[in-house]
Design a protein that fits this description.
By secondary structure, the protein is α/β, with parallel strands linked by helices. The chain has a single domain, classed as PAC-like subunit (Rossmann fold, 3-Layer(aba) Sandwich), CATH 3.40.50. The chain contains seven helices and eleven strands. A hairpin with a 2-residue loop joins strand 4 and strand 5. Helix 2 runs parallel beside helix 4. The relative contact order is 0.18.
Length: about 250
């Protein structure tokens, strides 16, 4: 019997040809405390990274806004020297999670990236004496034994796009670490995101200042809440695109 379901298309579009060999891929999602998105946004702003491309899918979210007088896309790619940030301003729809993450992993392996750093979040109610935990692929443990962030406790689970990416990176024997700070589940948590950025500093031996992140915590929380409301509006109006407060 023919499978008539629409095949998910994930397309990378770059302003010009890029050589990614030896680069580090950074990526964060809209998980607990929005840690992934907040930390990646802070990296892009602090590094003054250049937007070099976009990711387009069949069902790309129908939202744009303006930043620095430019149109922002739901899925953007930024670069500063050998650091490349995949920034999902919105999360792909659930039916595209598998294809979206698998394609990013396959692309980074094919383009000969050196390693990948992923950011998620852990429910602060489960916090122990540590500020964060990590998950390592076997290849990362072998190549970066000096990184000593405590490993996630057995019995706790990672879900969503982050889980898919860890699966596919492990299957590809690719060096990857997922950094998981403890965060507030009920709201955006810039303080937890600052813990993640400090861990990135440690892993990469760089110095990204987190003071601005802490000082602007209230503004960042309001900005993320606006994005979450936009995402909710998208779901609520999937059968009527004229409703809602967005143009």
């Amino acid at each position: 019997m023919d499978d008539k379901r629409e095949r998910v298309q994930v397309e990378f579009i770059f302003d010009e040809t890029q050589n990614f060999e030896g680069c580090t891929l950074l990526n964060g999602w809209h998980g607990i405390g929005e840690c992934g998105f907040i930390s990646m946004s802070h990296l892009v702003d602090n590094l003054k990274a250049e937007r070099i491309g976009f990711i387009i899918t069949n069902n790309i979210p129908q939202f744009i806004t303006i930043k620095n007088e430019k149109i922002t896309f739901p899925f953007e790619i930024y670069r500063k020297d050998n650091l490349v940030v995949v920034l999902p301003i919105f999360e792909p729809i659930k039916s595209e999670h598998l294809a979206f993450t698998k394609t990013i992993v396959e692309w980074s392996v094919k383009e000969k990236f050196k390693q990948s750093i992923l950011i998620g979040g852990l429910d602060r109610r489960l916090k122990d004496d540590n500020e964060l935990k990590a998950i390592y692929t076997q290849a990362f443990k072998e190549k970066r034994p000096e990184v000593k962030i405590p490993v996630l406790d057995e019995g706790l689970y990672v879900t969503g796009p982050l889980a898919y990416m860890l699966m596919f990176y492990e299957l590809n024997n690719f060096p990857t670490i997922a950094i998981l700070p403890y965060a507030e589940r009920s709201r955006p948590d810039p303080i937890a995101a600052s813990v993640a950025v400090n861990a990135i500093n440690e892993v990469l031996n760089i110095e990204i200042n987190v003071q601005k992140l802490l000082e602007e915590a209230e503004r960042i929380e309001k900005e993320i809440e606006s994005l979450l409301q936009a995402s909710k509006t998208r779901k609520d109006t999937s059968t009527d695109s004229d409703k809602g407060m967005f143009v």
